[in-house]
Amino acid sequence: MEADTLELESFLPYRLYRLADAVSREFSRVYKDRHGLTRPEWRTLAGLGQHGTMTATALGEQSAMHKTKVSRAVAELERRRWLTRKPDEKDRRVEHLTLTRAGLTAYREMVPLAKAFERDLLGRLNASERAAVTEGMAALKGALDRSTTQL
Amino acid sequence: MEADTLELESFLPYRLYRLADAVSREFSRVYKDRHGLTRPEWRTLAGLGQHGTMTATALGEQSAMHKTKVSRAVAELERRRWLTRKPDEKDRRVEHLTLTRAGLTAYREMVPLAKAFERDLLGRLNASERAAVTEGMAALKGALDRSTTQL
DNA sequence: CCAAATTGGTTTCGTTTGTAACCATCGAAA
DNA sequence: TTTCGATGGTTACAAACGAAACCAATTTGG
Q1: Which of A5, B73, B96, B142 is most exposed, with the fewest beta carbons within 10 Å of its own?
Q2: In this structure, is the CB of residue B34 within 7 Å of any atom belonging to strand C?
């Protein structure tokens, strides 16, 4: 291989992105085809389903979304009446978000599908491959944290 | 952990996406900050730099981009005079794309930066972690190919 | 107590994206 | 050779996005 050439197919950022995109696209069927949700909306639903009640800021932190994404996702889920906002008593800038019964129903419907998706995907791997996936992701995350922090 | 709850932080599609996004964002400095390129434009440049001459379709296949992305990226690189189009002799629908001297210069400038980025990132890992990354990604890709094909 | 800086969240604006429609050309089949 | 489906590539349109400006409420520091 030539030294002044980059082989895109084996370039880590490219491979990783492509992989994540493919997995994510595949999984998006669960929330997109089924309920017409966008990814931020799905993540918002998942965050609230998991934690019960959260603020928009907390949602953004948990699921790594920009505040504008959170804002729009929350607005849409509210329009669907899948969540409600309750102003904080002490700090009137803050809103506490909670799923409605309808939102919770949708969430509960999707959780098993999400789990099945993950199980199916990992089920195609043998134990050592699964271990490699886990270890590799953790290691990369660690490396990334180290490099990002050092800025 | 409750059975009817999904822990987003450890959910594979989410973790993988987040990881790829972080790596990709970090790397985008190389082409975005430096030359104001978008990702499709960078991939186009990388494809042509690597292969010399390609058609738009081939570019799309190599770097997993939708044809509209390719079309726009090519148009922009042409506007910059970083590539030229040459119509195919036999099939007048097809265009052969080649980097100009200026495009090649930009490419040659970025290749070492890309390699350094990858080397730095992987350099933070020990040998077994690196192996895990490689093996894990290959395994996941395999699993994904198997599931997507089966549709 | 007041001005300035900060924070939670929304809105605006320009850019990027995906889907679908589209145009031109080509190949195969009638 | 004419027609019809497939293919290479572009364009139009609407949705999604990020950055920055913005509003309101809160904290900080003089």
Answers
A1: B142
A2: no
How far apart (Å, rounded) are the C-alpha atoms in residues B145 and B138?
Answer: 11
Residues of B within 8 A of A119 (CB-CB) are: none
CATH topology for the A8-149 domain: Arc Repressor Mutant, subunit A (1.10.10)
DSSP one-letter string for B4-64:
T---GGG-HHHHHHHHHHHHHHHHHIIIIIHH---HHHHHHHHHHHHHSEE-HHHHHHHHT
Nearest by CB: A63 against B4, B8, B136:
B8
- Asked if A12 and B120 come within 8 Å (Cβ–Cβ), the reply is no
Domain ranges of chain A: 8-149
Indicate yes or no: CB of B13 within 8 angstroms of CB of A118: yes
List, for residues B45-69, the tens digit of each pLDDT value.
999 999 999 999 999 999 999 999 9
Which of chain A's residues have a Cβ under 8 Å away from the Cβ of B122? 12, 143
Query: Which DSSP category does A100 fall into?
Result: -
Q: Which nucleotide is nearest to B66 (CA to C1')?
A: C18
Using an 8 Å Cβ cutoff, are B55 and B87 in contact? Answer: no
CB contact under 8 A, A43 and B125: no
> What pLDDT, on a 0 to 100 scale, did the predictor assign at position B1?
61
